[in-house]
Amino acid sequence: MKDILLVEDDPQITNLLTLHLHEPFYRVTACDRGAAALSRLADTTFHLVILDIMLPDLNGVEICRRIRERDGRMPVLMLSSLSEETDKVTALELGADDYLTKPFGIFELMARVKALLRRGDDRGDPLAGEDRVTEKAAGAGPGPGDGMIVRGELTIDRDKKKVSVRGQRLELTPKEFDLLVLMASHPGKTFTRHELLEMIWGFAFQEYEHTVTSHINRLRIKLEKNISKPEYILTTWGTGYRFAE
User: Which of 70, 129, 154, 222 has its CA 20 to 30 A from that of 83?
Assistant: First the structure.
């Protein structure tokens, strides 16, 4: 069973999501205040946080920042209205893994939730394997996350969602992990920011391209010995980024 923290002050949205995210696959803890959410996060380990940007006390962006200070891997799905574009960009730059704009379709939200849980850290939950069996029975083939990638002192285990470099385990967010896997799977290939947005985030609006830059910078901080002279993630000036051959 996957434990989900839902931080949302609109009772109608809370009721809708708890109706669909029900047992035996999900267990939802709902909070309508940011302070209560932070208290829950201090006491409980969750597989996913669904976080509204506008809350009565703490802004959801601030909560996302605090989550990332303590946990670099927990998937975070942001909910926002169309009027909160700036906050949305800030949240993505702080490490939110995905977002949905209100009003949203429940089937789209469920698809995003399942995708984030699949890409999230492996917590040894036996239901995770059951979810994969269900998807394969529905016709889904094996995903691109199968197998190992070894590049010099970097090792990526795509099945277990684990990354180590120079013998040290790296704590990556799901989006950082997906970004690293994509680039390491195609050494020498230059990806534009536009392409990375489309392939990793599922959208390609020019206004969000600096989100890619922020994630690349965070990956370099975690991965490289010297970020001013990167060994793995290189810049193709005027174009984008590539993984070293």
Answer: 70
